[in-house]
Structure formats: structure tokens, C-alpha cells
Write a structure and sequence with these properties.
This is BCCT family transporter. It comes from Acinetobacter towneri. It holds the Pfam family BCCT. Belongs to the BCCT transporter (TC 2.A.15) family. It is found in: Cell membrane. The protein contains 23 helices and 5 strands. By secondary structure, it is mainly alpha-helical. The protein has 2 domains: 485 residues, Amino acid/polyamine transporter I (Up-down Bundle); 134 residues, no CATH class. It has a 5-stranded antiparallel sheet. The longest helix has 42 residues. It is elongated, with a radius of gyration of 32 Å.
Length: 655
């Protein structure tokens, strides 16, 4: 019988795909046909969210950073994102380039000069346009673009990578909630979570296209006197989307990877030019001082809500940034998860938090301090005026005062353009992952989302709805913050179970192999699958078999001139070897209460579920293994193994 021919939409998840398309269409209709009412509604909602939930954003982001730090420093950090034998798919340089350009590349180009200048002119506290406000502006800029931003990305990325590569769940946001809702992630709840993540991703990318296209247009206007108009910006969006489509068509390894590596090379060239063309010593001194101030004030800034200075500044900046990063986290988190298979959790957290943050601080430090130097010591007041008028021209206005301004501005424009493409193509790739059944979707699905994002950006640009879209992105971050907290809880819950399993496998004791009277495999299975024992049965075993084994071993130790004693207790017997000035060896077998495995019980009454075991205790405490029904030879072998380990420990300490 001939096989059924595959349909063109076989790999589409209809619940996520079509609900996303419908919601975006409704959003566009509201922006186009009722722009004034929609803008008014979004502005009022944003004001309410800022006034009512600023504390929630600040606390949630702090929890994310603290949780990741604790995970990295704990035993959980040794777990791999994949099987224990897996290795990283990408070398470190390619990995860093891809996660960085997808996460913040275009934002650094837009705000590298603009934000420090804006904080210098309008600081949250203190007198504007002073040395103090310049220092404060850099500290705030570092704070907004530093560890907290990448902690948001890292939490989502770690959750998705862990559940996908370690537990073979789909590489989707829904998988992070598996420890909480179980198999319901495959139902309507999971579809709803992925739909919300997809919409946030599309809106975030479309808004970034709005930022990027205005900066490219400003660069072309500065370089070639192109008209900085809507028509020019629409043409740029079409061109960028076409290149992004080509990159998406090539795939992750050939397209996005190579573009990302090229971006990093060009970014380093531009950064080096600014460093050597401006006051190098000043840039080094101030950047190092800024990093020190950022690190030393990190805790205070994390929880600073400016509650005693309610000027509204925090809502326009810090809360806006936290919401922005959260709304982008499904996209960036899933992308860095996709390229991080095979790395340990500690390597992932350290890499995602510290490497991009380090580059970001250097970038902001060099660009921001060079711009402030030109204002403070070279009387370049025109830069302040240009930023206040149009922040998209800040970078080009700054480069205009350096040597070779034409070449550097051209390089900056190309760099913004390439960052623009990598954000668009990686965003389209992740959107396709979220709306498809598997990762191996046909090319049309990936190209469809590239075109959808481009059309969304163009319509909003023409309708003047980018501000409304930015407001929608910020609002969407509030409910997703709750989802991220659940992701955090589910991740820690699963990791603790994984660590427990890892420790159990390492420390588990198996029944010793009898030498003189070896057991058959049936006898060994019978010993393992024993029936529950009563307390009196365990005590009788300890008094008879365990005591006899201890006595035999005691005589042998004493024959070798060792000081050995057997001590009775209410719950068992203790065998002690006295090492005098060194740590003594203790091996105790005691009665311990436990719950019998349900699969071994014929009667499920509450009274029969209670069982007792003969547990081994060493000096450090219980070892959580049962020696009940072991032969005397089994016990002697186990005691000698533990004693040999103790002697090895003493030798390590002694040396």
C-alpha cells in the first residue's frame, strides 16, 4: 500500500501557529483603525503597571540572578545539558558570537553613546551635566546592560536546554513547566504558553527592527545624504528581511553562525578605532573605575526602587529595561539554549552571564566614556543637542568628531545592518521552532515568519504604531514574569532530583559477592526484592549475625595489635577502631524506620507500609543502605571496604 503523501503543513502546530497569526492580525487592526484609542489604552496600562508592579519586576529579576548564582556554585553545576557523554556542538568563539549578537548586538549600537549622554543630561538624582552625573550615568548604563539582563536570558535558556537535551522534551518554553504541570504541557496549557512566547518574540523583534531601521536610515543620511523618510526605512526593512530570509534558508551553522562571527570581528574593529582615536588613557581609567563602582554597588542598585524620590525615572528606564529583557527572553533564551547542547550547567551560566556582560561593559565603557570625554573636555555640546533631538543619530554625531569619521560611520552603519540581519534571522528561526511540531520544518515555515515580522514592522512604521508596539511588549512582560518564576521553581526542583540521583548512583552499596558460597542470580534477586521486615526481626538479625561478624573481625584486629571495641546501643551495634591521635573508624548497624516500596506490598493498608531496615552508619552519619539478610561474609567484606576507604582518607590527610 503506498504511503500517504506528506502535506505542506504537516509540521505546523495549528494551535500555536494560527492563534499567533490571529492575535497579531487583531493587534494590527487595532493599531490601524483605532490608533488614538489604542495608544491611550496602552499608555494608561503602562503607567498602571509601572506604578503597581515596579517592586515585582525588581524582586523577580533579583531572584533570577541569585538563583543562577546558587545553581552554578552548587553540585547542580556539574550536570550537563545533555547526556553525560555529550560534548559542545560549537567551539567557544562561535558560541559566544551567536549568543551575543542574538541578545544585544543592535541595542549596543543604538544605546552605546545615547544612553550615557541621556543619563548625564537627566540623572535620576543629583545635578545634571556634572562630573558626578557623568559617573552616575555610566554606573546606571552598566547596570541596565549587565548581569541582570543576561540573568533573564540565562534562566530561560538554561531551563529549555536542560529539559530538552537532558530529558528529551521539546525545545519549547512549555517544557520548562514539566516538573509543575507534568504531561499537561502537551495540551492546551502548553500551547497557550508557547503562543504567548511566540507573540512576545515577534513583537520584540519587530520593535528592534524599528530601532535598527531608524539608526541605519540616520547613518545613510549622514554618509550619503539619503532622505531619512518612511519610504527609505521601508526599503531598508525589505532589504534586511531578504538577507535574513537567505540566512534562515542556509540554516544555523552556515547562515547565522557565520554572520555572528563577522559581526563580532567588525564590532571589535570599531571598538578599537574609538579607543585609539579618542583619549585612550582616559577611557581605560574611567572604564576600570566604572566597573569597580558597578560591582561595589551591584546589590544596592538591584533593589533600588527610588521609593524616596518618586520622580517616575525608574519606570522610564530600569523597569522599562527589565520588561524589555523579559519580553525578549523567550527568543534569546531559546536561541542560546539551541546552541549550548553538551555544556555543563556551570559552564553555561558562567559563559552566558560573564562573557557577554564583560564585552558589554567594555563596549559601553569605551563608547560612553569617549562620548562624555568629548562633552566634558572638548566642549562638544552639539552631541548633547543631537541626542536630545534624535537618539538614533547619537553614534554618528559622536563619530563625526573623531578622525576618519566617514570610514568609521560607514563601518558603524554596516555593523548595525548586520546586527539587524542576525536579530531578524535568529528571531525567525526561533519563532519557527515555537510554532512547529519539530525542529526540522520546511523552508517555507521559516521564511513565512521572516516575512510576517517584516510586514508587521512596515505596517506599524507607516501607521506610527511603534510606540504602541513598545508599550505592548512591556505589558506582555508582566504575565511572562510569572511564567519565568515558575520556570525557576521547576528548574530547581528537577535539578535537585538529578543531583540526588547522581549522588545515589555514586554512593549506592550493592550486595557483596560471596566468595566461598557464591549466590545464584535468582538468590541475589530474592535478596534485593526482600519483603518488609518488622523491628523485632531487624533487631534479632543485628544481635545474632551482625554481632558474630563484629566479634570475628575484632579478634583479627586484636591479633594485629589494634585497639578495637564493640559498643551496644538501643538501636544496634557499633564497631570502633581506635586510631588514637588520628580520626577513629566507626561502623555501626542500627535499626531504621522506612517506608516499604509500594510495588513490593501485597496489602496496601497503612499499617503494612511501615518497614524497618538494618542501616549502616559511619562516623559521618547514615549511609542509607540496608544490610538486612546479608551473610556474615557479606558484612565482613563491607566493613573492610569501608575501613580501607577510611585508611586512604587518613593517608591523604597525613600527607
Amino acid at each position: 500500500m503506498p504511503s500517504k503523501k506528506a502535506s505542506w503543513f504537516d509540521n505546523v502546530n495549528p494551535n500555536v501557529f494560527f492563534s499567533t497569526v490571529i492575535i497579531i492580525s487583531v493587534f494590527l487592526a487595532l493599531v490601524i483603525f483605532t490608533p488614538d484609542a489604542f495608544n491611550l489604552l496602552t499608555n494608561q496600562l503602562n503607567q498602571w503597571i509601572t506604578a503597581s508592579f515596579s517592586w515585582f519586576y525588581v524582586l523577580a529579576v533579583a531572584i533570577f540572578l541569585i538563583a543562577l548564582t546558587c545553581i552554578a556554585l552548587s553540585k547542580m553545576g556539574r550536570i550537563k545539558l545533555g547526556p553525560d557523554h555529550s560534548e559542545p556542538e560549537y567551539k567557544n568563539s562561535s558560541w559566544f558570537a551567536m549568543l551575543f549578537t542574538a541578545g544585544m548586538g543592535i541595542g549596543l549600537m543604538f544605546f552605546g553613546v545615547a544612553e550615557p549622554v541621556m543619563h548625564y543630561v537627566s540623572p535620576p538624582t543629583g545635578t545634571p551635566e556634572t562630573i558626578q552625573s557623568a559617573q552616575q550615568s555610566m554606573r546606571i548604563t552598566f547596570f541596565h546592560w549587565g548581569l541582570h539582563a543576561w540573568a533573564i536570558y540565562a534562566l530561560v535558556g538554561l531551563s529549555l536546554a536542560y529539559f530538552s537535551f537532558r530529558h528529551n522534551l521539546p525545545l519549547k518554553v512549555r517544557s520548562g513547566l514539566y516538573p509543575i504541570i507534568g504531561k499537561r504541557i502537551y495540551g492546551p496549557i502548553g500551547d497557550g504558553i508557547d503562543t504567548f512566547a511566540t507573540i512576545g518574540t515577534i513583537f520584540g523583534i519587530a520593535t528592534t527592527l524599528g530601532f535598527g531601521v531608524t539608526q541605519i536610515s540616520s547613518g545613510l543620511n549622514y554618509l550619503f545624504d539619503f532622505e531619512n523618510s518612511i519610504q527609505t526605512q521601508v526599503i531598508l526593512i525589505i532589504l534586511v528581511s531578504a538577507l535574513a530570509s537567505f540566512s534562515v534558508f542556509l540554516g544555523l551553522d552556515k547562515g547565522i553562525k557565520r554572520l555572528s562571527e563577522l559581526n563580532i570581528i567588525l564590532a571589535v574593529i570599531l571598538l578599537a578605532f574609538v579607543f585609539f582615536a579618542s583619549s585612550s588613557i582616559y577611557i581605560l581609567q574611567t572604564t576600570i573605575q566604572n566597573i569597580g563602582q558597578y560591582v561595589s554597588n551591584l546589590f544596592a542598585m538591584t533593589f533600588n526602587l527610588y521609593a524616596y524620590q518618586p520622580t517616575g525615572w525608574i519606570g522610564g528606564w530600569t523597569i522599562m529595561y527589565w520588561a524589555w529583557w523579559i519580553s525578549w527572553s523567550p527568543f534569546v533564551g531559546m536561541f542560546i539554549a539551541r546552541v549550548s547542547r553538551g555544556r555543563t550547567i556551570r559552564e553555561f551560566i558562567v559563559g552566558v552571564l560573564l562573557i557577554p556582560t564583560g564585552f558589554t561593559l567594555v563596549w559601553m565603557g569605551f563608547m560612553g566614556n569617549a562620548a562624555l570625554f568629548s562633552i566634558l573636555f572638548e566642549n562638544q555640546g552639539g552631541l548633547v543637542a543631537a541626542v536630545e533631538k534624535d537618539s538614533s543619530v547619537a553614534l554618528f554625531e559622536f563619530l563625526n568628531h573623531l578622525p576618519f569619521s566617514g570610514a568609521s560611520s560607514l563601518l558603524a552603519t554596516v555593523l548595525v545592518f548586520l546586527f539587524f540581519v542576525t536579530s531578524a534571522d535568529s528571531g525567525s528561526l526561533i519563532t519557527d521552532y515555537l510554532t512547529a511540531k519539530t525542529e526540522h520544518s520546511p523552508a517555507w515555515q521559516r521564511l513565512f515568519w521572516t516575512a510576517t515580522i517584516a510586514v508587521l514592522s512596515i505596517i506599524l512604521l507607516i501607521a506610527g504604531g511603534l510606540e504602541a508596539l513598545q508599550s505592548a511588549v512591556i505589558m506582555s512582560a508582566l504575565p511572562f514574569t510569572f511564567i519565568m518564576l515558575l520556570l525557576c521553581i521547576g528548574l530547581i526542583k528537577a535539578l535537585r532530583l538529578d543531583v540526588t540521583k547522581m549522588q545515589a548512583l555514586q554512593s549506592a552499596r550493592i550486595t557483596p559477592r560471596a566468595i566461598h558460597n557464591p549466590r545464584s542470580w535468582q538468590q541475589r534477586l530474592s535478596l534485593i526484592m526482600h519483603s518488609p521486615h518488622s523491628e523485632s526481626e531487624v533487631k534479632a538479625y543485628i544481635e545474632q549475625d551482625v554481632r558474630q561478624a563484629f566479634e570475628n573481625l575484632k579478634r583479627e584486629f586484636q591479633r594485629r595489635q589494634q585497639d578495637v571495641s564493640i559498643v551496644e546501643s538501643d538501636q544496634g551495634l557499633l564497631f570502633k577502631v581506635n586510631h588514637h591521635d588520628e580520626i577513629n573508624f566507626i561502623y555501626q548497624v542500627a535499626v531504621s524506620k522506612t517506608l516499604a516500596p509500594s510495588f513490593m506490598l501485597q496489602d496496601q493498608n497503612e499499617d503494612t507500609q511501615q518497614s524497618y531496615i538494618a542501616e549502616v552508619f559511619l562516623r559521618e552519619g547514615g549511609k542509607n543502605y540496608n544490610v538486612m539478610e546479608w551473610t556474615q561474609e557479606d558484612l565482613l567484606q563491607d566493613i573492610l571496604e569501608q575501613y580501607e576507604r577510611h585508611l586512604y582518607f587518613l593517608n591523604v590527610v597525613r600527607n
